[in-house]
Specification:
Layout (H helix, E strand, L loop, with lengths): L2 H6 L1 H18 L25 E2 H16 L5 H13 L13 E2 L11 E2 H16 L5 H15 L1 E2 L4 E2 L2 E2 L10 E2 H17 L2 H24 L7 E2 L25 H18 L3 H18 L23 E2 H18 L2 H18 L10 E2 L17 H8 L9 H6 L5
Antiparallel strand pairs: 1-2, 3-6, 4-5, 7-8, 9-10
Helix pairs in contact: 2-3, 2-13, 3-4, 3-5, 4-5, 5-6, 5-7, 7-8, 7-9, 8-9, 8-10, 9-10, 9-11, 10-11, 11-12, 11-13
């Protein structure tokens, strides 16, 4: 079987369907009886009480189990709605608005982390997917999430979000980040797929404005995207050089984000019929990430980060990078029909099967060392199934609408 026939073969699509079911069975443990929100899961799929209840994990659980419900999987609606109740309950700040980063096991909010665009983008994604899936409370959550995001985070002057406020929304940090921008684009595309047609255009326009910044960055930085900026969006290329494996603000270029942006640009193009520039940039980002990060140090796998010449910095292999590589290859093959992307897809799916998919305990190993052995230096445990689940669905869906909308429309192949 050739690579391009693998990606479209009924047997492989059946394998993806089984893997989606397996992931959903594992991640269901995030919904705990008598509690709201979603737990961070350990390597065995058990809640890790030391982590408390995190907004972004809770949102990704709502999104994933909304997708499961749209797939017709029994029990997924209950998991999604239990997680959603955390977003309308203790994780929501009834006094100052918005969402806390987390609450501890007693329900006390974590206030020192402030309120971030990253978390709030995921609240929008959760609301959009829950609305698309027809889950209870989804439409109400989406309405509050979008109004809060537009009021507090969207910077219409620059056409991209600010990053972090203090908990009372009085002091805005000067840092700006491409990670929050990326997940904002993902969320805005999902919102555009969830709201009435007369409202979707404004969300697509915002996503396109943010994406245009990435097009410029890719052109001026040889396909390696700066992640960190000051308040005027001037890149800080040396941020965290002294702690390069920071889980949210690592030093250098993050090839996994180049791959994720590549896919998002293709979704945007499919939803807006915009210029060839989006496809060209997606290809540049994909090729740069593959050249810099894939199997560059004597073993298969994607290194986590590189410096600005493309040399590896943090060589740990993250599962989410592989999932985004697989999804980006599938998206580029869907868009172009070029078999070189199908070849990459086949190679990277084989890698995932050999090293990342945990057939014994469930889910995927979230982190591997340079010899592809399970590790836990940056991401202990198996916190959620969001990245891996989407990796099983995107190869079987068109590029528009976004994942939940495509499942709603019966487009799964």
């Amino acid at each position: 079987m050739t690579a391009d026939t693998l990606i479209t073969s009924p047997d492989h699509r059946a394998r993806l369907d089984r893997e989606a079911a397996r992931l959903l069975a594992f991640g269901a443990g995030a919904a705990r009886p008598g509690r709201v929100g979603a737990a961070y899961l350990d390597a065995d799929g058990h809640p890790d009480p030391a982590r408390g209840t995190l907004t972004w994990i809770t949102c990704r659980t709502v999104h994933s189990y909304a997708l499961g419900h749209l797939l017709g999987r029994p029990g997924c609606a209950a998991v999604a709605e239990a997680a959603l109740a955390g977003l309308t309950g203790p994780l929501h700040d009834a006094r100052d608005g918005g969402w806390f980063h987390s609450v501890d096991e007693s329900g006390t909010p974590e206030v020192t982390a402030g309120k971030s665009a990253y978390d709030h983008a995921f609240v929008m994604l959760a609301g959009a997917s829950a609305t698309t899936a027809g889950l209870r409370g989804g439409a109400d959550l989406l309405a509050v999430a979008t109004s809060t995001y537009l009021e507090r985070f969207w910077d219409d002057v620059h056409g991209r979000p600010v990053d972090t406020w203090d908990v009372a929304f009085t002091d805005l940090d000067g840092y700006r980040g491409l990670n929050a921008t990326m997940h904002s684009v993902e969320a805005m595309l999902a919102v555009a797929s969830a709201v009435p047609p007369e409202e979707s255009g404004a969300w697509l326009d915002r996503a396109a404005r943010a994406a245009s910044f990435v097009v410029d960055l890719a052109r001026t930085h040889d396909g390696r995207l700066p992640e960190h900026f000051d308040a005027d969006w001037v890149p800080d290329l040396e941020l965290n050089a002294d702690r390069p494996d920071d889980p949210f603000k690592p030093y250098g270029a993050t090839p996994g984000h180049g791959l994720e942006w590549a896919r998002l640009l293709l979704h945007l193009e499919a939803m807006t019929a915009r210029s060839q520039e989006l496809l060209d940039t997606a290809t540049v980002l994909f090729d740069r990430a593959a050249a810099d990060a894939w199997a560059v140090d004597g073993a298969d796998g994607f290194v986590y980060t590189t410096d600005w010449s493309g040399a590896p910095v943090v060589r740990t292999r993250m599962h989410w990078v592989a999932t985004e590589a697989i999804a980006a290859a599938a998206a580029l093959y869907e868009r172009t029909g070029d078999t070189r992307f199908a070849d990459r897809y086949a190679t990277w799916w084989d890698y995932a099967e050999r090293h990342l998919v945990d057939e014994r305990k469930g889910s995927w190993h979230h982190e591997l060392d340079t010899a592809n052995r399970p590790a836990a230096t940056v991401w202990p445990g198996k916190p959620d199934v969001y990245h891996a689940l989407q990796c099983t669905l995107i190869p079987r869906l068109p590029l528009a609408p976004m994942v939940a909308g495509a499942l709603r429309d019966g487009a799964l192949r």
